[in-house]
Amino acid sequence: MPELPDITAYISALNPRIVGQRIERVRLASPFLLRTVQPPVTDVAGRTVRALRRIGKRIAIGVDGDLWLVLHLMIAGRLHWRPSGAKLSGRQNLAAFDFSSGALVLTEAGTKRRASLYIVAGEEDISSLARKAYAPSTREGSRSSRAILLRFATHSRKKTARLRELLPILAW
Q1: Which domains, ranges and CATH numbers included, belong to the chain?
Q2: Fewer Cβ close by (within 10 Å): the C or N end of the chain?
Q3: Is 158 helix (H, G, I), strand (E, B) or coil?
Q4: Largest interatomic CA distance in the chain
């Protein structure tokens, strides 16, 4: 899974490329990538990118009309900058966001297809996604997060100790 430094690097690389640019077209290779139906993906075409934001381990792209494209890359998801009109052939290419200067292509190397795209309208929908996203850089909900993590972890001491090493931000 791309970690926080990777997400931050993606945002800093995308900022000069897409902020202020008009999204000409959004192409999906698989309908299963899209996790929302309202607003429709066609509403994004023709709008200008106004903001980039990190929501936990998700990348949010804000466009005119207070619409947001929220990408969750999951384990093997990556973003690539390709020439405009890049083909979506092959199993790894999931989506392309076409701009006049190039295309932002979402790929996933794994076979499980865990990456997702949410299209939401307004700050209220963004904040509801933010509540669902675990942000390790903050101490939000440390007790509830710890309880959830321990519930899904195996009950061996060794695995619980390893979990504590991996998530040092939580106050154990």
Answers
A1: 4-132 (3.20.190.10), 139-172 (no CATH)
A2: C
A3: helix
A4: 54
